[in-house]
Design goal:
Layout (H helix, E strand, L loop, with lengths): L1 H26 L7 H23 L7 H20 L10 H22 L11 H15 L13 H4 L3 H15 L46 H4 L2 H4 L21 E3 L5 E3 H11 L20 E2 L1 H28 L3 H15 L3 H9 L3 H6 L6 H15 L3 H10 L2 H8 L4 H15 L2 H8 L4 H9 L6 H14 L3 H9 L4 H9 L2 H13 L4 H19 L4 H15 L5 H6 L2 H10 L10 H13 L20 H12 L4 H14 L3 H11 L2 H11 L4 H27 L20 H12 L5 H10 L2 H14 L7 H15 L6 H9 L2 H11 L3 H21 L9 H5 L40 H7 L5 H12 L8 H10 L2 H11 L3 H17 L1 H9 L4 H11 L2 H13 L14
Helix pairs in contact: 1-2, 1-3, 2-4, 3-4, 4-5, 11-12, 12-15, 15-18, 17-18, 18-21, 20-21, 22-24, 23-24, 24-26, 25-26, 26-29, 28-29, 29-31, 30-31, 30-32, 31-34, 33-34, 34-35, 35-38, 37-38, 38-41, 40-41, 41-44, 43-44, 44-47, 46-47, 47-48, 47-50, 49-50
Length: 1028
């Protein structure tokens, strides 16, 4: 039952207590005397009321809640009684009575603080902040001391003697003791080295005229250069003996007067009393008077006098220090002066202002150039202290400071000096005005970032560098500089959580910043959603900045997946096809198309990516039709480039490829694309040619016909460079396009024959081979295209004009030379194809030799000795393979051109395509139209069968196996016992033949079966003949 009543009772007491506190806080405002003190009292009550409300409402009430509230209520009731004596309408209050009231109010606050300290920590659970706040308030209330204009202390009048009266009293006393000391300011106190007001400035010396003074101040480290200076001593005001505590021999901070009338330092006299205990008699250390009471009172007058003297002499010491820095006769003197100024400025803002007023800042900053590490360290500490909590001081220091020197100190090996430099920079960075100035100092941000990311080297420096960077982040310019130096977090944070203006600025910076590959993916993951959201903004500047940043991110291929997952495809498709915004600062269609092209070129599957809410995907007819429509309608070149790039990406999907082909076959579209080849915008022309190359396998003849019907084509596609080291991408892809178009297209071949100088092409090939393909980025591709164009002509040798061309320039020797001199696999493959095509015509061009007799010689029978005929018969060379008069130039004979060895060498190539092309060329020497027996004998003489067997072992492609087996069969049939022996001795061949028999296609199986039969590995069956 008791537990149920306690919450109700506690609430009742708390409500009553809060009402009383509210009434008191209202009433204290009306008290006219000591108004500041009473208002301060009311503030303490108000702060305590918050704790009372917390006790009332908390779910975890402590067991002693009622005791705490009742104790507070007693204190509030007492406060009410005390304050009633100060209300209006009552009799005037004397100073002594007012002082007594204030002391009583202090006791009330202290008692309340003690009550609050009884609240257990369990009351706050995990609310550490609340516990800390209550404990702090409790301690503050227990140590309260109201600054009153009146005091109830005893004998205050005696202590309020003026400075002159004290001096005269002291003079009278000293005259009695000694006749020699007559100076008004004489001091008979022996000082220790710890005296903060004399020895803090060891360069201060007494004037030589004070010969009657008997000061025994130790001056161990005083600078000899300063001792001779009269400028230093003139500022200092002498000290009064009464300033010093008889016990500590130091100037007093808290002077108190005891019963004997002697004043001591408060702490010193308390220690003396405690030393004697409560039972022993205590005597005054100076007068030896027995003390009846141990009560002491603050000597407020003396305390004020000492403080005023300190203030005057601190100003004087600042001037002395300035003089010392100006003289700067030694580094030791400079160090002492700086340290003294540090002491003077400790916790006293007015002294900092005085340092600035006397013009010390330039002198202090100048000392940073000293070689002495201690001087520089002290100067940095002093500058930091002067800059604390004062933006004006920060700006004055920054105006004089050479920041490059601070940057140099940041990298020095002396750790304290490095730390002080960092702390000064940290303090200056707290000024918003200085953020830009600091950030623009060359190297400062890079240095801070370097230190930040090396905590293992120096943890303290790393933390302070991080804090400095945090301060500098307030400047957008600094954020950009940080990003440029690899510290991207501030930029990314502002881009995600900032307002629209900040996001716009950060996105603009991101678009301009060149990012490392390692950081591009990280950036995309962090800010892609935010940037995509900015695209929908109605602010043109925001949209432009977002597009710029997205374009840069999309250019890095690994980011494609991240952007797709963020939903960029549909947004960009809408920008391209449906969204209409007029009078924008940019063309959003161009930007959107560029971003999509970048993403699709990354190689990701995008066929099924949705582009709108209607279910259309990237590979749908909707997208292809829209892009073709935009190309037909004279859109800007920059947009056309990206549209072409997107179409090129779509060609790898059968559905979209079929749609593209059907549209391009239309006359208008095909001519539109052909015309784009000649566009002066080179990037557009290159992109268009690349697209046409992709379409060539499916509609090559159509493109060739359209090309020949276009003015200026095809000759404009072959532009021979003046310098082979400066081949452009357009020249390379143009040559490749012509090489890729159907080789058998006679119309195109004749157009090339009549409009292109073949000798110039041959000369260019020769120049590229001499200078090397590494001389230009596109040299290899251009060379392959030129060789491909020459190969075109070998497919239409039935045309007399093209035959004449091949003979005139000896194409057989050209391709034979290219087989061995080129480092490009494609050039070797094309050369082998060219030789195959030429060799296929050799049997048709090779004719039996005919010896014609001269008619005149037949009609006239001359004597034998007058005959012009040689006694020996004329020997005519006949090609053993083609059975006629052959040459590399006229009949394209491979044997005569010595191309056989080169083709056999190509059979050992690693590239299967090169091997297959070379083998196909050699197969023309085993065709049924030639003399196979002699051809096999000729090939046996160069050990051709060994090369063929190696092909079977090294490659597994059906096409290669089929041709290799066909050649092996020919050798078995026509090569005699030697060939059969060489073939049968190959141990691996039977296993390969069995594998081909089981897994090869029809023709390969049939040929493998025949060889196995020849090798007696299979029974003989009647099979139909098969030829290549």
């Amino acid at each position: 039952m008791k537990h149920k009543q306690e919450p109700t009772l506690a609430n009742s007491v708390a409500d009553s207590l809060l009402a009383s506190i509210s009434g008191i806080t209202v009433s204290v405002v009306c008290i006219e005397i000591e108004q500041e003190t009473f208002i301060e009292f009311g503030c303490y009550l108000y702060r305590a009321s918050i704790v009372v409300m917390e006790l009332k409402t908390t779910e975890n009430s402590p067991p002693n809640t009622i005791e705490i509230l009742q104790s507070l209520s007693k204190s509030i009731d007492l406060a009410k009684e005390i304050l009633e004596r100060c209300q209006k309408g009552t009799q005037p209050i004397s100073n002594s009575e007012l002082g007594s009231i204030i002391v009583q109010l202090e006791e009330v606050i202290k008692h309340m603080g003690e009550s609050l300290s009884l609240i257990p920590s369990s009351t706050f659970k995990d609310q550490e902040y609340a516990e800390l706040a209550v404990n702090s308030l409790s301690k503050e209330m227990q140590n309260v001391c109201f600054a009153s204009q009146t005091s109830p202390r005893k004998d205050i009048d005696m202590q309020m003697l003026s400075l002159d009266e004290q001096a005269k009293k002291e003079l009278t006393r000293t005259e009695t003791e000694t006749e020699t000391e007559r100076d008004l300011y004489s001091i008979n106190v022996e000082f220790s080295m710890d005296n903060p007001y004399l020895l803090d400035a060891p360069y201060i010396v007494k004037s030589a005229s004070s010969s009657t003074r008997s000061s025994r101040v130790k001056q161990g480290s005083m600078s000899s250069s300063i001792k001779a200076s009269q400028q230093v001593a003139q500022f200092m005001e002498p000290m009064y003996e009464t300033f010093f505590c008889p016990l500590t021999k130091k100037i007093m901070d808290e002077p108190v007067t005891i019963e004997s009338g002697i004043t001591y330092e408060k702490k010193a006299i308390i220690d003396l009393f405690e030393k004697h205990g409560n039972t022993e008699e205590v005597f005054c250390p100076v007068t030896s008077q027995k003390l009846v009471s141990r009560v002491f009172n603050s000597n407020i007058a003396l305390k004020c006098t000492i403080e005023q003297w300190k203030e005057r002499n601190e100003v004087a010491r600042i001037k002395v220090a300035r003089t010392a820095l100006s003289l700067a006769s030694s580094e030791q003197m400079v160090l002492e002066a700086i340290k003294d100024v540090q002491t003077i400025c400790q916790g006293k803002p007015q002294n900092k202002l005085q340092v600035q007023a006397v013009g010390m800042l330039p002198l202090i900053i100048r000392t940073l150039e000293y070689e002495d590490t201690n001087v520089r360290f002290a100067a940095l500490e002093l500058l930091q202290k002067l800059a604390e909590d004062d933006d004006d001081s920060k700006e004055m220091i920054a105006e004089e400071l050479d920041f490059s020197l601070i940057i140099k100190l940041l990298s020095c090996s002396h750790q304290p000096l490095r730390h002080s430099s960092l702390l000064l920079l940290l303090e200056l960075s707290k000024s918003q005005y200085l953020c830009d100035k600091i950030g623009l100092v060359p190297g400062v941000i890079l240095m801070l970032i370097t230190i930040k990311y090396k905590p293992s080297t120096d943890v303290f420096a790393s933390e302070k560098a991080n804090e400095t960077l945090k301060n500098l982040e307030r400047s957008p310019t600094n954020v950009k500089l940080m990003a440029e130096n690899g510290f991207l977090e501030p930029l990314l944070y502002n881009l995600v959580v900032g307002n629209e203006e900040i996001k716009t600025e950060m996105a603009s910076y991101l678009g301009e910043t060149v990012l490392e590959h390692d950081s591009r993916t990280y950036v995309a993951e962090k800010v892609s959603p935010s940037l995509i959201g900015m695209v929908h903004s109605g602010n043109p500047l925001t949209r432009m900045a977002a597009f710029k940043a997205l374009s840069q991110m999309s250019s890095y291929q690994p980011n494609g997946k991240i952007l797709i997952e963020a939903g960029i495809v549909q947004i960009m498709a809408e920008e391209m096809f449906t969204r209409r915004i007029y009078d924008e600062l940019m063309d959003s269609k161009i930007e959107a198309a560029a971003i999509l092209a970048n993403i699709f070129e990354s190689g990701l599957e995008h066929e099924n990516l949705r582009v709108n809410s209607h279910g259309h995907t990237m590979a749908s007819d909707y997208v292809v039709y829209n892009i073709i429509y935009m190309l037909r309608n004279s859109t800007p070149d920059e947009l056309n480039v990206n549209l072409i790039r997107i179409l090129s990406c779509l060609t790898k999907y059968p559905k979209s490829m079929a749609t593209i082909i059907s549209l391009v076959k239309e006359i208008e579209t095909s001519f539109t694309l052909i015309e784009l080849i000649n566009n002066p915008h080179e990037e557009l022309a290159v992109a268009t040619i690349k697209l046409l190359i992709m379409l060539t396998p499916n509609m090559g003849h159509t493109l060739a016909d359209r090309l020949c019907k276009t003015r200026g084509q095809p000759e404009n596609l072959i532009q021979i460079p003046n310098d082979v080291t400066r081949i452009t991408e357009k020249q390379a892809v143009s040559a490749k396009f012509l090489a890729e178009l159907p080789h058998q297209n006679l119309t195109l071949n004749l157009a090339l024959l009549f409009k292109i100088a073949v000798p110039t092409i041959l000369q260019t090939i020769s120049q590229i081979q001499r200078s090397g393909t590494r001389s230009s980025r596109y040299a290899t591709s251009y060379l392959e295209g030129l060789v491909g164009i020459l190969v075109r002509f070998t497919t239409t040798l039935y045309d007399p004009q093209i035959l004449f061309l091949a003979r005139t320039h000896n194409f057989t020797m050209v391709f034979s030379e290219l087989l061995m001199k080129s480092s490009s696999d494609e050039v070797q493959r094309l050369s082998a194809i060219g030789l195959e095509n030429l060799s296929s015509e050799s049997i048709n061009l090779s004719k039996p030799p005919q010896v014609k007799k001269a008619k005149f010689m037949n009609l006239v029978n001359l004597p034998k000795f007058l005959s012009f005929k040689s006694s020996r018969k004329t020997k005519i060379t006949v090609c053993p393979v083609h059975r006629g008069d052959c040459s590399s130039e006229n009949t394209f004979c491979l044997v005569n051109a010595k191309a056989v060895d080169r083709l056999l060498a190509c059979l050992d190539h690693e590239n299967a395509e090169v091997v297959e092309a070379a083998l196909s060329a050699l197969c023309t020497l085993l065709d049924d139209k030639v003399d196979v027996d002699k051809s096999v004998n000729m090939l046996n003489s160069v050990n051709a069968i060994r090369h063929v067997l190696n092909v079977v072992k090294e490659h597994r492609q059906d096409g290669l196996w089929q041709k290799s087996f066909w050649v092996i069969e020919k050798f078995l049939k026509k090569g005699g016992g030697q060939s059969a022996s060489d073939i049968s001795q190959d141990r691996l061949l039977p296993a390969l033949l069995v594998s081909a028999f089981h897994h090869g296609d029809g023709n390969t199986r049939q040929t493998a079966e025949k060889i196995l039969t020849h090798l007696n590995k299979m029974p003989s069956y009647n099979t139909s003949g098969y030829t290549m």
